[in-house]
Design goal:
- The model has no long low-confidence stretch (mean pLDDT 80).
- The longest helix is centred in the middle third of the chain and has 19 residues.
- The strands form two sheets. A two-stranded antiparallel ribbon has the order 1-2. It has a two-stranded antiparallel ribbon with strand order 3-4.
- It folds into two domains: 43 residues, no CATH class; 86 residues, no CATH class.
- The chain starts with a helix and ends with a helix.
- By secondary structure, the protein is an alpha+beta fold.
- The chain contains seven helices and four strands.
């Protein structure tokens, strides 16, 4: 592939223009617009819009696991399998503070839960940020985490 049009065609995303590829001596220089976001304490490259990728963002495992635990534990409380957070903590061999903090995740806004499960959570969202002092109102949560 020595021709500029061939290189651009090989790259194939629909919004790619031949102007994004240029020759610099013996090298071919590609200009790929991209953005970065913070996930799990590291930077992640976000693909340009219109890119035909066979994979999407992978969900944050820690967030998904914490949400699943919170909802399972809440179900145990609702069904009467345990009578209190302290009893639940005893049964699980965990600290009551940890259990209570995790149970607070059941109050996370549905839109935010969906974005976490889809791997499209707000930039920089961590379990610590999610579990520590989120507002109760869903609109407030979405506004706070959108910043």
């Amino acid at each position: 592939m020595t021709d500029r049009a061939e290189v651009a065609a090989a790259m194939s995303p629909p919004d790619y223009r031949p102007a994004d590829v240029r020759r610099d001596g013996d090298c071919v220089v590609l200009n790929i617009p991209m953005t970065f976001r913070r996930r799990n304490g590291r930077r992640e490259i976000i693909l340009p819009s219109g890119t035909d990728a066979s994979f999407g963002p992978e969900p944050n495992r820690a967030l998904v696991l914490a949400l699943a635990r919170a909802w399972r534990w809440q179900k145990m409380l609702d069904r009467g399998e345990v009578r209190s957070v302290d009893e639940l903590a005893l049964r699980l061999h965990l600290g009551p503070t940890y259990v209570a903090r995790t149970l607070r995740l059941t109050a996370v806004a549905p839109k935010l839960v969906e974005s976490i499960l889809a791997g499209d959570e707000p930039d920089g969202l961590s379990l610590r940020k999610l579990a520590s002092g989120l507002p109760v109102g869903w609109a407030e949560q979405e506004r706070l985490l959108a910043d």
